[in-house]
Amino acid sequence: MSDELAAPQSKVRVAVVFGGRSSEHAISCVTAGSVLKVLDPERYEVVPVGISTDGRWVLAEGLGEQLAITDGALPPRIDETSGALVTMAADPTARELTVHEPGTVPKVLGDVDVVLPLLHGPYGEDGTLQGMLELAGVPYVGSGVLASAVGMDKDVMKRLLAASGLPVGPYFALRAKQWDTGEGRARVLASVAELGYPVFVKPARAGSSMGISKVHDETELAAAIEFAREHDPKLVVEGMLTGREIEVGVLAGRDGGRAEASVPAELKVLGGHEFYDFEAKYLDGTTAVQLPAQLTEEQTAEIQRLAVEAFEALECEGLSRVDFFLLDEGGFVINEINTMPGFTTTSMFPQMWAASGVSYAELVDRLITDALSRPSGLR
């Protein structure tokens, strides 16, 4: 470990936390690689902390160039060989990281001013890490415990959006025990038939298009449910929406002002993909982006209004990306909200804000500044 990390600094000390226990581990690493490149060394002292798939925290120095998708291959996973083990106490009087190296006395790395959690999926984006940081009294980028948990669960998210008068598509939630009994399976089949094929079967609490299947008829349903259950025992089954896929980025307002929406972008999936799946999103370059989306002024104003209202309905903080369908028959429907959207340089959230006049580096600075301005605890 370098002496520079241990030395007191007047710079803001940022712990960039990435990896994690979810199936989105690799995408989180890619996000971290992009962010680490733009953090200004004159302003920030960066402490890169990787979380392995079994939950170990390690001091992940020197991994920057490995944290990228190269020739279609995802980066290697964080594990115990990636660096010395690190712990953070859930103690608001000691906002410290402690390094544990074999054969040595644990060494205090120093206080952390703010955490930039670049984790996607369960055990990172779902309120669990946010709860730990609240206990530790450490400021962090992004939504708090409630919004993070709600935003991760597509079922609860849709229920709260609908309760707020926001438009969502037809769907129902499904637990494993419902599918595993004859009576329950019959009810599921009836509910799917009511939605009408095709339907989409998704893990309720996963992202990056993991575990999603488009189901064309009843013969494909069982396999789709088993595939989704590899990621989550809770599923959602969504009715098919026919229209254009439009996304909007939202940032918390400056100085306590109202949240702001980016220019919208449209996604067009090419190359034989039936929907925006993991390969189309990250690996094979078959997704075309129209930025800004070709919308009327009235449509742009409407989708930006809905995006901000969704952000506020779930009590989000920091940032979110809201995904919509512009239906063929007219009108917008909210598909989902992401409280920690993909954040690589090619991800939609940074691209939309770049088109709105906020560069990637400025975006990261703004998020850290926002986090430092918020109190921990109830707010």
From TrEMBL:
Residue span, ATP-grasp domain: 158-369
GO molecular function, one term: ATP binding
Active-site positions on this chain: 24, 208, 347
Sequence positions that bind Mg(2+) 2: 336, 338
Cleavable signal peptide: none
Amino acids binding ATP: 154, 200-202, 208-209, 238-245, 335-336
Primary residence: cytoplasm
Protein known as: D-alanine--D-alanine ligase
Organism the protein comes from: Actinospica acidithermotolerans
